[in-house]
Amino acid sequence: MTQTYRFGVDLGGTKIELAALDAGGAIALRRRIDSPRDYASIVEAIGTLVEGAERELDTRGTVGIANPGAIAPGTGRIKNANSTVLNGKPLREDLERRLARPVRLANDADCFAWSEAVDGAARGARSVFGVILGTGVGGGIVVNGKLLSGPNAIAGEWGHNPLPAPGTDDLPLPACYCGRRGCIETYLSGPGLAADHARATGESADAATIERRAAAGDAGCEASLARYEARLARALASVINILDPEVVVLGGGLSKMERLYRNVPRLWGAHVFSDEARTGLVAPLHGDSSGVRGAAWLWAPDEAHGSDRAPVTLREVQEANIDLVADLRVAPHQVYHVASVGKTFWQAGGRPDVWVRAIYAGETPVGLLALVDPALQGDAGPHELYLARLLVDQRYQGRGYGAAAMEQLLAGVRDRSDVPSIRLSHMPDNEAVGRFYERFGFRHTGKVDEDGELEMRRPNP
Questions:
Q1: Is the dihedral of CA 10, 15, 18, 19 positive or negative?
Q2: For residue 218, which of 196, 201, 241, 239 has the smallest C-alpha distance?
């Protein structure tokens, strides 16, 4: 039997790293390249890395991406990335088109936390807070074996909260690239530590140099690290007061300072709202590999052998399944409720010109598809079909269900000689939808319909 692999890609500001995990979680192959500076080249570089690894291993695998931002739930585009060339871009859709398969993305700090929770330093813990202390400051949360994201896709982003209880040593509040002042990141990142040391001593030194000089007895460097540890303790105590994790795992370049694991837990007790602070502070087991491993772990081992979805079928919306369809949750920007769409068509008494199907993955309803057929209204001659709805539950978006439903729809339409084309439309600002439909042969006509939406058509072969 051919070995199967899960490919993880860690997309950073200066480098892109790929690792292939075998069925047991061991890294079978690792590759690293410099990050291109423009977006299109980044997408192409990732595609080339994955394809090259698959040629070397003579297999095809799943792909997970650790990226420095988050996917905005309302648009599907990257936000909050300190690699700003990614912001506003439909990275997942572009990678799926480039690699011709479903791709899963998560924030790099989330991937770090996930890796250490799955088989790293926090393995077996019921709640984990993974911390990145590097060029920036981020975090990820894993609870009961689940990576948390949240409705805003910002779970664990503590780096842009204000530093708790700033004192005289913390003033003036440093400016942050996010537009605020006094963010935790401006104090606890590597550049933040270096900037604080420069303000206090007038010396220019990076974090590694400060640590080395402190160990050699330099009083100024020792004072800078003491301030850093006190700030880290206050900041983590605020997380403990809210989340109360069993384990905090430190990652990033500054996590290599062994003194943090001795000193910070002694300091955070004064700020934790408990008579005893039992949370553990641990170093990462996988070190610099955690991000890329966590990206690969976005796919479960059994998923590496097949596709990202259960077999998809289309089933008519009827009285027997309307309650199941009503359980669907559409994305926040879709103001209509998918159940109301399906139920309206069903209650219309099975209108012959409206073809409505629930999208099922196995026995789970994951979306809804509706097609209007003007030809059945009694008009003479061939008529195009109008695709009125293609909705996928937000819990299942990005996993191929909409594509599978579209494939089934088009396969059925091909058998109709009386239908010369299929038409649909989308809002001008929803470019990701337009690109999705382009994958199935739809092309923009240049027309705008009565609702201000851009029209697309596809000939029926």
A1: negative
A2: 201
Q: What is the DSSP letter of 162?
A: B
C-alpha distances in Å from residue 53, one per residue of 61, 318, 336:
10, 47, 43
Q: Which residue matches tokens 């010109």?
A: 353
Q: Is the bond preceding 172 in cis, omega lying within 30 degrees of 0?
A: yes
**Bridge partners, 29 (sequence order):** 20
Please report how the helices 190-201 and 207-215 are oriented relative to each other, as an axis angle in degrees rounded to 10.
Answer: 60
Task: Note the pLDDT tens digit of each residue in 104-119.
Answer: 999 999 999 999 999 9
Residue 128 is encoded by which pair of tokens? 């984990």
Write out pLDDT tens, residues 25-50: 899 999 999 999 999 999 999 999 99
Spell out a b/e string for 130-167, using b for 16 or more CB atoms within 10 Å of the CB, else e: bbbbbbbbbbbbbbeeebebeeebbbbbbbbbbbbeee
CA-nearest of 355, 343, 352, 351 to 318 is 343
Residue type, 115: S
CB 68 within 8 Å of CB 108: yes
CA quadruple 148, 106, 151, 252: dihedral sign:
positive
Token pair 């030809």 is found at 375
Q: Distances from the Cα of 456 to the Cαs of 227, 302, 421, 459, in angstroms?
A: 59, 38, 10, 10
